[in-house]
Amino acid sequence: MTRHLQLTEQGRLKHFLTIEGLDRELLTEILDTAESFVGMSEHQVKKVPLLRGKTIVNLFFENSTRTRTTFELAATRLSADVLNMDIARSATSKGESLLDTIRNLEAMQVDMFVVRHALSGAAHFIAQQVAPHISVINAGDGQHAHPTQAMLDMFTIRQHKKQFEGLKVAIVGDILHSRVARSQILALNALGVAEVRVIAPKTLLPAQVKTMGVTPIHDMDEGLADVDVVIMLRLQKERMNSAFLPSESEFFRCFGLTEAKLQRAKPDAIVMHPGPINRGVEIASSVADGPQSVILQQVSNGVAVRMAIMSMTMRSGGTA
Ligand code: CP
What range(s) does the Aspartate/ornithine carbamoyltransferase Asp/Orn-binding domain occupy (predicted)? Predict the structure, then answer.
């Protein structure tokens, strides 16, 4: 259902809501398109006219540092006009519904909504409601999906490892509440990695983990053995409605990434984290700032990858 909603009849991206249903060819096209934008930050004029005349609205109902700013920068570099809605000061606080907000912005002839929302399915809902010329990009919905984050992570992995075949990837921490992990798992499997391991206490793994195409492991020494990529996740305390852990210090002792634990991975393994990082909770500072960390490269790559996704959805034109 979502696959059809986000693709045109010709199989091109109309919206970008989830990795689910997207094939390797399309994901590779996103990575290749991003590659063409990656050097732009070095240019004196950091702009291309691909979205000149288009109006993009950033609708962030949840806080964000990286995603919102890199979307804004990406839109600006594509020469689009960008509106950043200040949700705290908008009529949402006076009880206006999400749909009414969308209808009013639509009346201003906008071309794209970039949506972050605490409710799973919010971006999908908006994509179903908007006029045919408008594209919707999911910038994170509840615990469901964060597909542009997953794509910038795939881009960063490809930059360092060149190909996905044969790679062993470990995703560590709060898998249960992580929209990033869900999108990463779908992307890694679609791109053909050898193995995706999820390392977490049983309380932080989803009940349906066995259907997700991953190997669940509850021990860092076992899970990190010989992996090429280690992806650390934050404890998503804002989504925890009961006690999932004895304490943060106990979590760090068992599942926090330290230099000693990282020794279990391959010597050239890269360390990733979508951010924001909580030092001393899921990752030691010496690892986050260490030679194997590519955490800030992920942020840089976010601009090029979001430029690729925005230009591809706008290019498709027409209806889904
Ligand atoms: N990775 C990520 O989504 O970070 P922000 O919440 O800062 O956007």
Answer: 165-312
Pocket of ligand 1 (CB under 6 A): 64-67, 140, 149, 274-276
149 labelled binding-site residue = yes
**How far apart (Å, rounded) are the C-alpha atoms in residues 237 and 235?**
6
Q: Is 52 marked as a binding-site residue?
A: no
Q: Is 94 annotated as a binding residue?
A: yes
Could you give the residue numbers annotated as active site? 66-67, 94, 116, 146
Residue 105, classed as helix, strand or coil, is helix
Which range has the worst mean pLDDT, 83-97, 121-135, 188-202, 254-268? Answer: 83-97
- Which residues is 270 bridged to in the sheet? 229
Quote the CA–CA distance of 151 and 302 in Å, as a whole number.
8
C-alpha of residue 10 to centroid of ligand 1, in Å: 32
Distance CA 135, CA 48 (A): 20
Q: What is the DSSP letter of 92?
A: G
Q: For 210-264, what is each residue's pLDDT tens digit?
A: 999 999 999 999 999 999 999 999 998 777 766 777 789 999 999 999 999 999 9
Give 185 Cα–ligand 1 centroid separation in angstroms.
18
Q: CATH number of 147-299: 3.40.50.1370, 3.40.630.30, 3.40.190.10, 1.10.260.40?
A: 3.40.50.1370
Amino acid type, 92? T
